[in-house]
Amino acid sequence: MASAPDAHSPTSPNPYHSLLAEAQTHRRLLSVHWEVTHRCSERCRHCYLTVLAPHRRPADELTTAEALALIEQMAALGVLYLTLSGGEFFVRRDWRELAAAAHAHRFVLRIFTNGLAITPAKAAHLASLQLYAVEISVYGADAATHDAVTQTPGSFAQTCRAFELLAEHGVRTVLKTPLMRCNVDQFDALGDLAAKLGATFRYDLTLTPRRDGDLAPLRYALNYADLVRHYRRTLTAAPTMSGAGCRLCNVGRNALALAPNGDVYPCLELPTAVGNVRQASLRAIWENAPEWTSLLTLDANALPICGGCPLGALCSRCHGAAHHEHGDWRAPATAHCIRALARRQALIDRALMPPEAAPLTAHLAALQQRLEAPRHNDDDYHPLT
Question: Quick one: which of 382, 83, 377, 381 has its CA closest to 257?
Fold first, then answer.
């Protein structure tokens, strides 16, 4: 009888890659991001949530029993990745029970936190759960910048201490930063801080409106000039410009998001409820909610402006951002168009791409002209004005 193929043989299938391929083919739910609460111990100026006080429990937040039952449903569906976030995850008094249940089902578990609640005892407990990572938000490389964003004096020192405690217990950490106008000049310093704290550094350029439609968070977003400067520093090569239109995300194919009250969303950027776990099982929602059909059939041909955009290879178009701005998944998202234009300009400035490789459509040319026009008060800038 022939022996089984060696797991490391070049001819052996990679089990993880096989799982991903199977999930794509059969639309298997692999990943869940769960906002277990919207209560928080900070009041971050740019937050997309209207956060509640830490000790105020909303009447509609899932109970411990409901939350544990939901974890069982995830396991039954074969979920692999689970992210527990908030608000602030640790304001829930039952956080140990939820994390223990997730650990028992062997999810690849991440916890998002601001770090304020991390004590030596909590760090030791988290280490016992064999987490994939604890991801902690940091908004500046110094206390003045970070604390001004969180509106919580002393939060920078407490957050840095959380990294140190977790490192002492061998917990993998990620220092994650939304790059904003107040901290973009600290980009290198933030990377250095992450290294000093033993964390992986990850940053994001995305700020979104609040869930209630308030555009205030966008006032902290990088403007076009900021983005061009950032990309000049960070882009090292131009992508292949196929001219085939924008890239489409996999929303609805193998992931979903959950709200504290049990609402099910296609993703965090598209918080349009497709069901609620108090009214139907997670499996029924995943398999039968009619909204999935619209998302899964949304291809480039259905996007009148983005579908054939010549800057598609430079764009990270988001259905959710388009929905926020226009109430229409099919529209272009201005913030992403701006980023594509900034990438294009930075690549041209660095002689990494000739202008003719990425021609501008009428839509993009008009937007760039508006972006380059003088502003009387640049402090009032946000991408949707």
Answer: 83
Q: Which two three-digit tokens encode residue 359?
A: 């021609």
Q: How many Å apart are CA 269 and CA 319, to the nearest integer?
A: 8
Contact yes or no for 330/298 (Cβ under 8 A): yes
Interatomic CA distance for residues 215 and 164, integer angstroms: 35
- 135 CB burial (10 A radius; 0-12, 13-18, 19+): buried
Structure tokens given for 117 = 């609640």
- Would you call the peptide bond into 87 cis, given omega within 30 degrees of 0 as the criterion? yes
Residue carrying structure tokens 């938000």 = 137
Tokens read off for 32: 């869940």
Report the run of H or E that residue 139 belongs to, with start and end: none
Please state, in angstroms and rounded to a whole number, the distance separating the CA atoms of residues 132 and 247.
Answer: 29
The C-alpha atoms of residue 275 and residue 284 are separated, in whole angstroms, by 9
Q: List the end-to-end C-alpha distance of the chain, in Å, as a whole number.
A: 70
Question: Residue 202 pairs with which residues in a beta bridge?
Answer: 176
317-365: pLDDT as tens digits:
888 888 888 888 888 999 999 999 999 999 999 999 999 999 999 999 9
What are the distances in angstroms from CA 231 to CA 176, 341, 353, 378?
A: 18, 11, 13, 20
| Angle, CA 158 vertex, CA 153 and CA 164 arms, to 5° | 160
Write down the number of H helices and E strands in the chain: 13, 9
User: Which residues are paired to 116 by β-bridges?
Assistant: none
Residue with tokens 């041209």: 348
Joined tokens for residue 28: 């298997």
Distance CA 138, CA 253 (A): 31
For strands 200-204 and 173-178, give the pairing: parallel
Which H helix or E strand runs over 35?
A: strand 31-35
Do residues 207 and 44 touch, judged by C-beta distance below 8 A? no
More confident residue, 333 or 247: 333
Question: What does the DSSP assignment read for 74-97?
Answer: HHHHT--EEEEESS-GGGSTTHHH
CA–CA separation, 67 vs 60, rounded Å? 12
- 7 pLDDT higher than 50: no
Candidates 284, 260, 256, 283; CA nearest to 269 is 256
